[in-house]
């Protein structure tokens, strides 16, 4: 393989792995990161018990923040020696019994059970609580990380949450309970007795790119190749993950290892110069602006860049503004427009009839008879739609309803939808005029007279 192709393959693999498997690099959230770190430090070093909820939309970096804090604390020998980490996920641990078994394994309490077989959930819970309460301030600290915390609130009687919060409130073995959720109303999901045991510490995370310039800088950082010293520093940081003994923390085993890569100064400078040049262009800025307007989270940008990097080939070894624009247009796609472009010409004509009716009567509801009368006026002067039978038009109208392009009104005339003949059942349009306009423009092989009717004065 030529040297240039080898360099490109290595660059592509490095960027894809960093975009996909870097679970601990957190940008921004300095204050929130400090709060969580101090909480875990006090639990590990001073024997304090705490509880905290980390709340934010999906993709905002909640799990990454916890991972980054754990990596920071792994450099502290006392934290490694004096702390156990227990990781639970609401999607996996669907009830308290499954969660308790996982806790027992992760806390390495199988030997303490001395071969005992627990006949019930209550006995298992009592054994776990006895182990937690038996310790004092000098015992090992236990950090409970509860992903999808809101799903644990749906467990029967919230027994697990109540007991974890109860232990964290009492002066027993030091534990810290970290809940991670995207539900802003998660406190309201807690029962009164559970809520009384919770410390009510909450940390809110929201996407932090407040300015478009910061978004462009983030994009450049994610696409640039690092220097040798940066790779070495990152590799040393990742090596610290080996100190995590919890098998449940999968990110520690699957984390991207930058130490496997090295780039010559020539390759690095050439690549970074090309990336900077592309991102400085107006076309690239327009693409990034549309992405920024759609979703400012880093997770969304990484998804876009991963697909962009995956397109690199020996025949096309560079990222270009044209590639970014073409890929960006896929993210801007409207499913309703795609659905409209897949309709038959007759069905699209009915949509245009509905559009004209809505424009005249300010989006008043309509039924099949109203739309058929308007469509018939066009069909009389059209060579395309002449001779279409009423039953076929009714079938096309029903197809629009099945596709939810038009929606029946609840409680129509006659005391309910079920008491009205389908020809007279009232509907409303579930599309915008802009969506219809774009669909008419993009429709393949649309008869000219239909396109003109869509844009022209009303018939």
From TrEMBL:
Pfam families: AAA_16 (PF13191), ORC4_C (PF14629). It is found in: Nucleus. Transmembrane segments: none annotated. Its main location: nucleus. Residues 48-208 form the AAA+ ATPase domain. Keywords: ATP-binding, DNA replication, DNA-binding, Nucleotide-binding, Nucleus. It comes from the Eukaryota. GO terms for molecular function: ATP binding; DNA replication origin binding. GO terms for biological process: DNA replication initiation. SMART domains: AAA. Component of ORC, a complex composed of at least 6 subunits: ORC1, ORC2, ORC3, ORC4, ORC5 and ORC6. ORC is regulated in a cell-cycle dependent manner. It is sequentially assembled at the exit from anaphase of mitosis and disassembled as cells enter S phase. Interacts with DBF4. Interacts with POLQ. This is Origin recognition complex subunit 4. It comes from Drosophila rhopaloa (Fruit fly). The lineage of its organism: Eukaryota, Metazoa, Ecdysozoa, Arthropoda, Hexapoda.
């Amino acid at each position: 393989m030529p040297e240039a192709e080898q360099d490109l393959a290595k660059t592509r693999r490095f960027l894809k792995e960093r975009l996909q498997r870097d679970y601990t690099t957190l940008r921004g959230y300095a204050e929130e990161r400090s709060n969580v770190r101090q909480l875990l430090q006090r639990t590990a070093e001073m024997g304090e018990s705490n509880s905290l909820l980390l709340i934010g939309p999906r993709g905002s970096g909640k799990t990454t923040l916890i991972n980054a804090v754990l990596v920071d604390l792994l450099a502290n020998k006392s934290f490694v020696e004096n702390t156990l980490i227990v990781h639970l996920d609401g999607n996996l641990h669907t009830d308290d019994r499954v969660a308790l078994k996982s806790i027992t394994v992760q806390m390495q309490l199988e030997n303490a059970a001395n071969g005992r077989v627990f006949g019930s959930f209550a006995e298992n819970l009592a054994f776990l609580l006895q182990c937690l309460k038996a310790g004092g301030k000098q015992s090992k600290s236990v950090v409970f990380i509860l992903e999808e915390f809101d799903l644990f609130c749906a467990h029967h009687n919230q027994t697990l949450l109540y007991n974890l919060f109860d232990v964290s409130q009492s002066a027993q073995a030091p534990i810290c309970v970290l809940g991670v959720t995207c539900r802003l109303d998660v406190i309201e999901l807690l029962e009164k007795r559970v809520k009384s045991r919770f410390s009510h510490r909450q940390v809110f995370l929201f996407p932090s790119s407040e300015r478009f310039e910061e978004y462009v800088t983030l994009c450049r950082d994610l696409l640039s190749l690092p220097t040798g010293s940066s790779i070495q520093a990152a590799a040393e940081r990742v090596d610290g993950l080996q100190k995590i003994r919890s098998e449940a923390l999968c990110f520690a085993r699957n984390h991207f290892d930058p130490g496997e890569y090295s780039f010559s100064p020539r390759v690095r400078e050439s690549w970074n110069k090309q990336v900077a040049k592309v991102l400085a262009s107006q076309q690239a800025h327009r693409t990034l602006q549309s992405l920024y307007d759609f979703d400012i989270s880093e997770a969304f940008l990484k998804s876009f860049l991963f697909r962009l990097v995956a397109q690199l080939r020996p025949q096309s070894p560079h990222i270009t503004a044209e590639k970014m624009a073409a890929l960006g247009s896929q993210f801007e796609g409207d499913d309703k427009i795609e659905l409209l472009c897949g309709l038959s010409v007759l069905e699209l004509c009915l949509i245009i009839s509905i559009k004209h009716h809505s424009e005249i009567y300010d989006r008043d509801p309509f039924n099949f008879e109203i739309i058929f009368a308007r469509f018939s006026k066009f069909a009389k002067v059209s060579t395309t739609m002449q001779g279409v039978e009423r039953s076929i038009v009714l079938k096309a109208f029903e197809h629009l309803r099945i596709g939810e392009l038009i929606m029946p009104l609840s409680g129509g005339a006659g005391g309910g939808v079920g008491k009205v003949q389908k020809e007279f059942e009232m509907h409303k349009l579930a599309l915008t005029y802009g969506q219809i306009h774009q669909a008419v423009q993009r429709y393949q092989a649309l008869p000219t007279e239909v396109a003109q009717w869509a844009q022209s004065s009303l018939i």
